[in-house]
């Protein structure tokens, strides 16, 4: 039954996060562990923030593959004993999805599975293949039949049609044809494969629990299953985990790594380590840099919870201004069906965040958020604080202005819809309605990451959403072919 069938309208009760950059996806794999699927489900719980549209797990019991995929969160879909019992075996991989390529539909829920000439092959992918449309159009021309609209399926078809002899060689041959960002966890009857793109744009870590090997998007997922962090999978590294242990290959041309800088700013959980650094500590240092670059006289520092909290703590400590929870977030809000109507919509904003009136009335606030995307979030928050009696609001953003779209697995609005693409800082200040507005500088962000400055000719991170400096070709976005390919793919 659809929302229209009910005669009702679905209201997002997460109105502030509707204006956030959407997380990519989360992957988690287990090889050699009793009740592997149950362990994967726990890992996906820890990675829920990376994708909340759908989740899936594929397991292998030594003879057969078993899969269960579902729309929605891990909880409610993979905390049922009957589901876990069905996913038998001591090897399993899982995926949390937020769609950056392909519609929100069951056919796009991962892991994707196919029976190849070499046997069963399941793949879970975090990232985005920036030449997927070009590759797909050519594969369709040659006779491939696609079952999904996901760019991940392109990898399966490239493997299936490769002329190489072994599955491993076919897999490497396929990856040498793709551009963009990917961290992959794959499951076959012979073993589990993990791979990170040559630039290391998307993260992937290796852990162990006794003799059990684990691959995960973030270290926090290892913590949840009591596994030990071993190391990051290196950019361009491919690992094979089988009955004889772990084997590492570096099959691609070496490149200077450029991991996604937004993992540190927003995507990763603050209790994770990203590329060897505590995300929480990095975000506190971002706040301290903001205080040094754009300090202002105020009575208190208030975060937009929860993503702005570590930077707000760092700002408050560096500036010597009290930190207060001036906005309270409800953690118990799900989707809510309500009758449409502008007044009710406006009230719905406060279901998730509400101003702490007792603390902020009559006060000068430094409001800390992680980013500004369309700007609608900031307008609503500032209006809410004004209505609660805030005397002044000075907005500080823990990232540089987001002026460019991401094509590497982050669902960014097209550039024309990004506030910083359309306006300078003063125009944004007026639009949002604050006394002052400042963003951390790109060099300040790099300093928070323990880099003295951004190297203009060889940047240490992928920061294209701020600078427009894309580290790979964007084949599907270039020239007249792009529109023709889009028409072909429907």
Q: How would you characterize the overall build of this protein?
A:
The chain is of the alpha+beta class and 490 residues long. It folds into two domains: 21-258, Aminohydrolase, N-terminal nucleophile (Ntn) domain (Glutamine Phosphoribosylpyrophosphate, subunit 1, domain 1), CATH 3.60.20; 278-467, Rossmann fold, CATH 3.40.50. It has 18 helices and 23 strands. The chain is globular. Mean pLDDT is 89; it is low at 1-17, 335-340 and 480-490.
Outline of this structure?
29% of the residues lie in helices and 24% in strands. It has 490 residues and is of the alpha+beta class.
- Strand arrangement within the widest β-sheet reads 4-3-5-2-11-10-12
CATH topology assignment of the largest domain? Glutamine Phosphoribosylpyrophosphate, subunit 1, domain 1
In angstroms, what separates the terminal alpha carbons? 26 Å
Strand content: 15-25%
CATH architecture of the largest domain: 4-Layer Sandwich
Mean of the pLDDT scores? 89
Throw out a few tags for this protein.
globular, 29% helix, six-stranded antiparallel beta sheet, Rossmann fold, 2 domains, seven-stranded antiparallel beta sheet, disordered C terminus, alpha+beta, disordered N terminus, Glutamine Phosphoribosylpyrophosphate, subunit 1, domain 1, 490 residues
Structural topology:
Elements: H1 3-6, E1 9-11, E2 25-31, H2 36-46, E3 54-60, E4 65-71, H3 81-86, E5 91-97, E6 112-116, E7 119-129, H4 132-141, H5 152-161, H6 167-175, E8 180-188, E9 192-196, E10 205-209, E11 212-216, H7 219-224, E12 228-232, E13 238-242, E14 245-249, H8 262-267, E15 273-274, E16 277-278, H9 279-294, E17 300-303, H10 309-319, E18 327-329, E19 336-338, H11 342-348, E20 353-355, H12 357-360, E21 364-369, H13 376-387, E22 392-397, H14 419-422, H15 425-432, E23 436-439, H16 442-448, H17 464-467, H18 481-489
Parallel strand pairs: 17-21, 21-22, 22-23
Antiparallel strand pairs: 1-19, 2-5, 2-11, 3-4, 3-5, 6-7, 7-8, 8-9, 9-13, 10-11, 10-12, 13-14, 15-16, 18-20
Helix pairs in contact: 4-5, 4-18, 5-6, 9-10, 9-16
